[in-house]
Design a protein that fits this description.
- By secondary structure, this protein is mainly α.
- It folds into 2 domains: about 1-85 and about 170-250, no CATH class; about 85-165, no CATH class.
- The protein is built from 16 helices and 2 strands.
- It has helices spanning about 5-15, 30-50, 65-80, 85-115, 125-130, 135-140, 150-165, 170-185, 190-210, 210-215, 220-230, 235-250, 255-260, 265-280, 285-325, 330-335, and strands at about 60, 60-65.
- The chain has a two-stranded antiparallel ribbon with strand order 1-2.
- Strand 1 (about 60) and strand 2 form a beta hairpin.
- Helix 2 (about 30-50) packs antiparallel against helix 12 (about 235-250), helix 2 packs across helix 15 and helix 8 (about 170-185) runs antiparallel to helix 9.
- The longest helix is centred in the last third of the chain and has 40 residues, at about 285-325.
- The chain is globular.
- The termini are far apart.
- Mean pLDDT is about 85; it is low at about 1-20 and about 330.
Length: about 325
């Protein structure tokens, strides 16, 4: 990285200004393929865990599911940097995309848990999970534990929304340094969440203020995370994710399966845990469990996507009409 690039990036950081990375109207097909890879890695680990084969989830010292999770957080940070919408509108759009579908799936999870009786919960847990912050209050005791990622993601998106404000450019650096330092000081068992957060903000900050680092396939970020992994081993997952992302953004050829999956990826992430739990009632053989889980989760994701799209399109239309009648153009545009 040249001194001019570094100085320009620091100037944009101080002033809160960003530089476009992705040309308007373009679609990075490699991200769809990377998202599919992350889903497969996570699904394989969860399938092996459900079938009591945890000894198979580690390959060469890497837990395969955590590679997928690191990819997911790095992708989220990268995509947050590509949006040029006003901060408030962007954040509201993220909430509108994430929460309603999450509420539906969480409701299904609580109903199934009440019927099956495998997990106990109280009213406080229901409130916490529907708020989206259940992982911070109940940890591994979540109903549908596969949805844990939403809690840190909401916090990270809120921080990005503030950082997107023109007067808060330093917030990206402050948050990133806080997460990096905290992760290195934590025990390996407690550092994972902070490492994922740091990976998210590194991807966001670099793509916002130094986009040429990704554009030129620079090894600086992977090497930096590899160095940090000598201090905190959990950063090795971020290093792998950054290498994969660096190459993925150069891919221009779409693949049908990845492009199709990208349309239901969020719904799939929410539903696959419930579907694996249902599949366990049929079999615990890893291969058969995985096949049944894939079929059920894809069917559930497509059904959820169709139902939620139709419903929220109807709601959005009604709300826009009300906003326009009230003469509130900003509200109408957000809705």
């Amino acid at each position: 990285m040249s001194s001019r690039t570094a100085v320009g990036g620091m100037t944009r950081l101080v002033q809160g200004k960003s530089e476009d990375y992705k040309p308007r109207g373009t679609h990075l097909h490699g991200l769809d393929q990377l998202r599919l890879l992350a889903a497969l890695l996570i699904f394989v680990q969860h399938t092996l865990s459900c079938s009591s084969h945890d000894e198979w989830i580690d390959i060469a010292g890497f837990r395969i599911g955590r590679i997928g999770t690191a990819i997911f957080f790095m992708l989220s940070g990268f995509l947050a940097a590509t949006s040029r919408r006003p901060a408030f509108e962007w954040f509201v759009d993220r909430l509108r995309f994430l929460l309603p579908t999450f509420w539906i799936v969480t409701g299904i999870g609580f109903v199934l848990a009440a019927i099956g009786g495998r997990k106990e919960f109280d009213a406080w847990q229901v409130v916490c999970q529907f708020s989206g912050f259940g992982y911070f209050t109940h940890g591994e005791r979540l109903i549908n534990i596969a949805t844990w990622f939403l809690s840190p993601l909401l916090v990270l998106y809120a921080a990005v929304a503030v950082a997107k404000h023109k007067s808060c450019g330093w917030l990206s650096l402050i948050v990133t340094l806080f997460l990096l330092v905290t992760a290195t000081l934590k025990d390996e068992n407690y550092a994972t969440l902070y490492c994922h957060g740091a990976v998210f903000f590194l991807a966001y900050s670099i793509c916002t203020y130094w986009p040429k680092l990704y554009r030129n396939m620079t090894p600086i970020l992977p090497l930096g995370l590899a160095f940090l992994s000598l201090i905190q081993p959990e950063f090795r997952y971020g290093a792998v994710a950054s290498i994969l992302l660096t190459f993925a953004i150069k891919v221009q050829s779409p693949t049908r399966i990845a492009s199709t999956f990208s349309r239901i990826a969020y719904e799939w992430f929410l539903m696959h845990g419930i579907c694996l739990s249902l599949a366990m009632r049929i079999t615990e053989m890893p291969l058969l469990l995985g096949l049944i889980g894939i079929v059920l989760s894809l069917f559930a994701a497509v059904s959820l996507k169709c139902a939620s799209t139709s419903f929220f399109k109807f709601i959005s239309t009604r709300h826009k009409a009300i906003a326009e009648r009230l003469g509130h153009p900003t509200l109408a545009r957000i809705l």
